[in-house]
UniProtKB/TrEMBL annotation:
Lineage: Bacteria, Pseudomonadati, Bacteroidota, Bacteroidia, Bacteroidales
Beta-ketoacyl synthase-like N-terminal domain segment(s): 31-158
Pfam families for the chain: Ketoacyl-synt_2
GO molecular function, one term: acyltransferase activity
Protein name: Beta-ketoacyl synthase chain length factor
Length: 278
């Protein structure tokens, strides 16, 4: 793979959203008023990564989500039931589509470039990162990549019924974005060296063997890397976005010069990302 550098990262969750200057960040009060909480989180995180860049400097926007706008989806389904499928308000439906965040970022910044959204359950973010890396390999300079998901009372209830809490997972939400570049700069945080995904049930030993194999492909062993393990890791299917953003910021402090991130969603979707000091 060609060198891919993480130049900037931003992460926004429900608790930090209220502290952001959304009016000045988004700049369009009418658009801001119509945005759901998820769209605000995703658009804010994406725009922070693009701060100072002109539209011509952004060659692609690649986003990911596992479930999309659940709040707007719920509003639309409720209207279908209460209005007997007639005289429906189309706005919640339009805002519930998976590509809304990527489209809103492009509209606000005036970006006319490749724009796609991946919806691959627990490997959605990893699919977006793979595409972003391919875009860099094909000659693009700057690619915005990120993921977003939210919690609603309905989704939380469904996860409870699926037994997520019994498995020790806590519900989580948020939006994490990265600006990937083809060349390093003074602000570069890390080099993205490798990415691997697996699907299927694996116990701790199986996951360890998979990660060891992944590192071995890069000439590294388990002792050659620092594993980034945040204190809280919720069961959002795109939670790996936040972990990778945090790991990119920690590469400079890693004594080994390498940081690895292993993520597992719902016990079925596994990924490993390798970062190194630029």
């Amino acid at each position: 793979m060609v060198p891919v550098y993480i130049d900037r990262v931003s992460y926004v969750d429900g608790s930090s959203l209220k502290d952001l200057p959304l009016a000045s960040l988004i700049g369009n009060p009418n658009m801001l008023r119509r945005m759901s909480r998820l769209i605000r989180m995703g658009v804010a995180a994406g725009l922070m990564c693009l701060d100072g860049l002109s539209p011509d400097e952004v060659d692609a926007i690649v986003t990911a989500t596992s479930l999309g706008g659940l709040e707007d989806t719920g509003k639309f389904l409720e209207e279908i039931s209460s209005r007997n499928e007639s005289s429906l308000n189309p706005t919640p439906f339009m805002r519930s589509t998976f590509n809304t965040v990527g489209a809103q970022i492009a509209l606000l910044k005036g970006i006319r470039a490749y724009n796609v959204t991946y919806v691959h359950r627990g490997l959605s973010l990893e699919s977006a990162l793979t595409d972003a890396m391919l875009q860099i390999a094909e000659g693009r300079r700057n690619v915005l990549a990120g993921a977003f998901d939210e919690i609603t009372p309905e989704s939380h209830a469904v996860k409870e019924r699926l037994g997520f809490s019994r498995k020790g997972w806590t519900d989580s939400e948020g939006a994490g974005f990265m600006l990937l570049c083809s060349e390093p700069s003074e602000s570069t945080l890390a080099e993205l060296c490798g990415l691997r995904t697996w699907r299927g049930t694996m116990d701790a030993d199986g996951a360890g063997d998979a990660v060891r194999s992944f590192l071995g492909e890069h000439g590294l062993g388990m002792s050659d890397v620092t594993f980034f393990s945040p204190e809280t890791a919720g069961c959002s299917w795109t939670g790996s976005a936040g972990r990778i953003c945090g790991a990119a910021g920690a590469v400079g402090d890693a004594g080994t010069g390498y940081v690895a991130v292993y993520s597992c969603s719902t016990g079925m979707y596994h990924s490993a990302v390798l970062l190194r000091r630029p």
